[in-house]
Amino acid sequence: MDVRATAAQPNGSIPNGSTKHNALVAGADRHQIIDDQKNFTSELASQLKHWGLHDTGFDYDVVAVFGSQSTGKSTLLNRVFGTNFDVMDETRRQQTTKGIWMCRGQDMNVMVMDVEGTDGRERGEDQDFERKSALFSLASSEVLLINLWEHQVGLYQGANMGLLKTVLEVNLSLFGKSSNQRTLLLFVIRDFIGTTPLANLSATLTADIQRIWDSLSKPTDLQEAKLTDYFDLSFVALPHKILAADKFENEVRELRKRFVDKTNENYVFKPSYHKRIPADGVAFYMENIWEQVQANKDLDLPTQQELLAQFRCDEIATVALAEFNEQAKFQKRPIELGRVVEGLGGMMRQWKSAVLSRYDRDASRYHKDVYSRKRTDLLAVVDSVLSPLFLGQLKNLHKACLVTFKKEMLEGLRGENSNFADVVTAAKDKCEVSFVTAAKEARLEDSDWVWEDELELLREEVKSVSDQCRADETKKMVNQIERNFKKQISDPVEVHLNVASARMWDEVLGVYRETLDKSEALYLSKAQTFNCTDEENASSLATLRRRAWIALRAKIDEQTADPVLLGKLRTHFEERFRYDEDGIPRVWKPDDDIDGAFKKAKDQTLELISLYSRIRPQDPENAYEFSADTLTAHSDDHQLEEEFDFESSLTVLSETKVLDLSSRFRKDADAYYVEAKRSTVSSIAQIPTWMYGVLVVLGWNEAMAVLFNPLYFTALLCALATGWMILKLGLVGPLLQVSRTVANEVQRQATDRLHQHFSQPAMTQPIAARSRNDSDDEGGLREELRQRRL
Ligand SMILES: Nc1nc2c(ncn2[C@@H]2O[C@H](COP(=O)(O)OP(=O)(O)OP(=O)(O)O)[C@@H](O)[C@H]2O)c(=O)[nH]1
Predict the structure, then answer these.
(1) 165 among the known binding-site residues?
(2) Which residue is closest in CA terms to ligand 1's atom 6?
(3) Cα angle vertex 659, ends 657, 660, to 5°?
(4) Residue environment code for 519-558, b if the CB has 16+ CB neighbours within 10 A, otherwise e
(5) Could you say which DSSP state residue 220 is in?
(6) Which segments constitute the GB1/RHD3-type G domain (predicted)?
(7) Residue after which a domain boundary falls, among 249, 271, 298
(8) Dihedral angle, C-alpha 430, 431, 432, 434, nearest 10 °
(9) For labelling alongside 615, which of 29, 230, 538, 560 has CA 20 to 30 A away?
(10) Is 470 exposed, middle or buried (0-12, 13-18, 19+ CB in 10 A)?
(11) Does 456 map to a domain?
């Protein structure tokens, strides 16, 4: 395609030089949109951008020229619009314009098309291009300039009436369906002399056109269609360019005003002529029309407009979506990673409104139905991108709120005197409020997205978490109560089991029942703050009772363990066998009934084994039994449930154990019996009384000697007085200690001496002798020591 530059006069004045050569100077450039080989340019869109027309929306106009070759069409366009189309060199008289050219009008948003002239010598009989180019001009422009010499008026072929007829006929099928598409046919009569008034020429041309219109073979549904329904006719005459140059210039200037000055009463670009194609779609639109013309199909302009609209709306939507996707992409990742994006709703709203306003701005000028249809599609795409973000945000919110709920609940429960129900309610309310607030923010108002389902799921999870927490807290509480219970029963049970009376079990069970009642009351008072259900309370109490019973049994087992129980039996036996009724130790005499006492004490003690062997209170009313609901209530402690059998738990000692204990006790008791018997024998084996008489008789003289000798007697008195003093002052112990120490010291000293004596028997004396006699001769002593060592 050929793009050239030419001179454009400032301020819209008409350029003077009309030659081809002169046209090729800097200024506005032109563009060949269809070449003489009937190819449509691929650069029209960029050329429109270059001309600054691409973004003018509907604020542009299109004008084209139709007429025989070399009738001054290019000259006319250049003068009227300030364009730079090629003009024929007057000396050569040959075709100048080939194909269709376009140029922007100077200082106006007008696309001016210079079309190859009809009836050209160069194309000869080939009328294909002129028909197609005429059709194309008519279909795409608002104003069609029909350029003809004055002397051509009234001629049929000379005035291109045959061609016009064909074009109008096809045109009717083009515009027949949309009668609001009007076109101005502006006849420009050149070399107007003035002999025949313009009005007459206009009438002749109007009559000719009307005649052609009437003779058209119209579609059946448009038989009544009138020429004026589709076309406005206008006429202008221009004097001879050379012979009446000044007048020509004046008229051309006037004619230009009709294209430029919107206030001019003859302003040609009426809104009804506009094809309503936005400027950025003109290139595509024209190319399509040319393709249709080329394919020799009937042109259906509305369809063309729809096609164009589809194409352009898709293009615009794609551009708008690209920007939108770029924005959305940045928030997709954090949401996929499970984060809650702050202000996501605001961002989505902004992206959506940006993509829509961008689409609306560029696409709303196209075919309305297509525009709205594509807008709906665009919205669906936008929503399909945003919806996963919304759902992801909800999921992440759900998780985050649940985490906060757990945290707040645990923190609340950590506080002293915290009320479980209050803590849970407060944390739950806060959790729901923050979820709903954030979910509402994320939801787009014009969407059908819902967050209520997610809220329900959150509520369910919150409930299960709080239930679990309550179960844990209840368990903790039961454990605490159980620990307290164990402490409380420990001492009283021990005391009662030590006493081993007939009412021992009554007492033990009494303590147990009393402590258990207190524990149950404590549980119930605490459970009120947990909002526990009756079933949960029943289950927890059953667990508590079982554990309490097991704790009691553990205590009983501890107190009836073999060594402990044997100790108790021994004590019991000793109390009865070795002490009398007043608790005074017995000293067995030969005539005491040791066997009787032994048997009695042993039998009484053996009875205890049977007493300890089963929890059997004396008073049946004190018997403890588990209630049915305690036995049947479900316990979450499966180990407890499996191992627990109340009836068997009443048995403390198995029969084997009883037999074993009895035999072991009997052995112990037998030992006591033997000891008692021995003590009787030793008292029998003491010094006989008559021996004392013998001693008195034999020692009589010595005793009298001491009593009647004043010295011995005084010594005896002194010894007795000293002994008495020592006793009175409590010095027996210290004196014994001192004596013992002295004796030990004496013994130690003696042992050391003996040791020294026997370890170095022959050396002591010679060494001592030499050291005395030869004390200054140290060298000799050292030598002797060395030799001794050797
Ligand atoms: N007599 C006369 N000659 C004119 C007029 N305007 C232009 N010419 C001359 O006519 C010749 C053809 O002018 P163009 O403007 O090239 O004509 P055209 O119709 O564009 O020619 P093609 O593009 O080849 O079809 C030139 O030599 C012009 O000087 C006019 O009003 N009267």
Answers:
(1) no
(2) 72
(3) 65
(4) bbebbeebbebbebeeebbbbbbbbbbbbbbbbbeebbee
(5) G
(6) 57-273
(7) 298
(8) 80
(9) 538
(10) buried
(11) no
Burial of 79 (0-12, 13-18, 19+ CB in 10 A): buried
Binning the chain into helix, strand and coil, the percentages to the nearest 5 are 65, 5, 30
Query: CA torsion 764→766→771→773, rounded to 10°?
Result: 150
pLDDT digits (tens, 9 = 90+) for 451-462: 899 999 999 999
Residue 477 C-alpha from the chain's centroid: 35
258 CA → ligand 1 middle, Å = 22
Handedness of CA 472, 477, 482, 487 (dihedral sign): positive
The share of the chain scoring above pLDDT 90, in percent, equals: 30
Specify if 494 maps to a domain.
Answer: yes
Whole-angstrom distance, CA of residue 766 vs CA of residue 769: 5
What is the distance in angstroms between the CA of the first residue and the CA of the last residue of the chain?
132
**Which tokens in the block code for residue 720?**
């007795």
Task: Give the tens place of pLDDT for each residue, 688-716.
Answer: 788 888 888 988 888 888 888 888 889 98
CA dihedral 434, 439, 444, 448 (to 10 degrees): -140
Q: Quick one: which atom of ligand 1 is closest to the CA of 190?
A: 31
Co-location of 304 and 420 in the same domain? yes
Total structural domains within the chain: 4
**329 touches 347 (CB < 8 A):** no
Domain shared by 331 and 372, yes or no: yes
327 and 422 part of one domain: yes
Confidence class of residue 300 from pLDDT cuts 50, 70 and 90?
Answer: low
Tokens of 545: 């009772």
Residues 355 and 263 in one domain: no
Ligand 1 pocket residues where CB is under 6 Å: 18, 69-75, 87-88, 90, 95-97, 117, 190-191, 240-242
Q: Tell how far the Cα of 30 is from the centroid of ligand 1, in angstroms.
A: 19
**What is the value of pTM for the model shown?**
0.50
Q: Is 67 annotated as a binding residue?
A: yes
Whether 247 and 359 map to the same domain: the answer is no
Give residue 513's domain range: 473-680
Same domain, 184 and 309: no
- Work out the average pLDDT over 749-776: 60
Give the span between the Cα atoms of 378 and 364, in whole angstroms: 13
pLDDT value at residue 399: 93
CATH number at residue 115: 3.40.50.300
Instruction: State residue 490's pLDDT score.
Output: 92
